[in-house]
């Protein structure tokens, strides 16, 4: 089966870049070199973040469209898709780092998943930096650029990025949240990982609950408590997201997509898609043109 959309690594998305684990640049210069490539929907096999300091236009993240605003920051995880539609004068900072960049540095390889903006849920990944945090956030970006352009001490850059993530998480929290026990966070994280692995084959919460050695009621209660959604909703959202990604590939018929996603037939897939998206797969595909 053909690739649904282009998926870039750090070197191929930025012509002439030689480091496969890290890229840090001012956004204006990056856009001049890469705008034509990133204007269309594409994916990454690396983590990606952008802070806008000026400009306007739009960008999409997993098919959700956002208006560019100064001091808006967004994050992407490997596997997500996006596109840019900026107007002239947009500037800020862009950073790419590989999925393995922190692995040898952190004992907890899944540490980044503790931050909501690395959840893979686009609604949690686009944030506005409040006025009282802007200079501090900007200073960290400037220091990352300085290190990347100079001695390029990888561990120093790792420390600075962790500082950035902690700072952004702190200044963008709108209200104090109740402390969530680590065990609950772990169960939810494991559930999301299992969905990503099995969403084509397993569609029922009870099937995931069995894999996790918990009851379906416990799984649903946890999802409702932490996310305000049922376990079934999380599964459906992942199936729909993959369907949208595949619909960007004009070489794949709706029937082929339905088969790949393990639907009984094309009509069942179309009814499922329209029920939760409000439009048919064909209408969604046409809306991308």
What does this structure look like?
The chain is of the alpha+beta class. 45% of the residues lie in helices and 17% in strands. It folds into 2 domains: 165 residues, Sandwich (Jelly Rolls), CATH 2.60.120.280; 106 residues, Arc Repressor Mutant, subunit A. The protein is built from 11 helices and 10 strands. Strands 1-3-8-5-6 form a 5-stranded mixed sheet. It has a 5-stranded antiparallel sheet with strand order 2-9-4-7-10. A hairpin with a 2-residue loop joins strand 5 and strand 6. The chain starts with 6 loop residues before the first strand and ends with a helix.
CATH superfamily of the largest domain: Regulatory protein AraC
Strand order of the largest sheet: 1-3-8-5-6
Distance between the termini: 22 Å
CATH class of the largest domain: Mainly Beta
Give the CATH topology of the largest domain: Jelly Rolls
Q: How large, in whole angstroms, is the Cα Rg? A: 20 Å
Topology:
Elements: E1 7-8, H1 10-13, E2 22-26, H2 27-38, E3 42-44, E4 46-54, E5 57-61, E6 64-67, E7 72-76, E8 81-86, E9 91-98, E10 126-128, H3 134-149, H4 154-171, H5 182-198, H6 205-212, H7 216-227, H8 231-247, H9 254-260, H10 266-277, H11 281-287
Parallel strand pairs: 1-3
Antiparallel strand pairs: 2-9, 3-8, 4-7, 4-9, 5-6, 5-8, 7-10
Helix pairs in contact: 3-4, 6-7, 9-10
Keywords: DNA-binding, Transcription, Transcription regulation
Protein name: AraC family transcriptional regulator
GO molecular function: DNA-binding transcription factor activity; sequence-specific DNA binding
